Amino acid sequence: MPEPRITNPAALLPEAVKAINLLYKETHSVGLPASTLELVHLRASQINGCGPCVDAGARAAKKNGETDDRLFAVAVWRETPYFTDAERAALALSEAATRLADQADAVPDEIWAEAAKHFDERELSALVLWIATTNLFNRINVTTRQQAPQNWG
């Protein structure tokens, strides 16, 4: 495993952490199920190859009652029966918003419309901001080669 390139930037720039914490607090305050937010965080982190976020996200979800079946299946959510229609819509939105360069219409109307069937405008706003925040975490960690902790005991 390669060594981190630098200390995590969040540790070096504490004012940035305050802004990130405000995003976290706001996106988690609108009433979206915490499990939905955890699933989209985990899926975006898997796509981006962010070891610390996949590790921490799966552990946090498990601690908050998520089942092994669902956690093990997030990467193949389309092929498993473990997720609600609303969760599937959120996961599809998370994938599209994370893979912006993969297609000309990065977030197709069908994906947005499906999400809008399950979430109101405030919830959609929080979901979009949470996906973007997750991608921020992922990009910081991957760019600087941050590692998942090895002392979880």
From TrEMBL:
Record's signal peptide: none
Location of the Carboxymuconolactone decarboxylase-like domain: 14-95
InterPro entries, sorted: AhpD-like (IPR029032), AhpD_core (IPR004675), CMD-like (IPR003779)
Protein name: Alkyl hydroperoxide reductase AhpD
Source organism: Plantactinospora mayteni
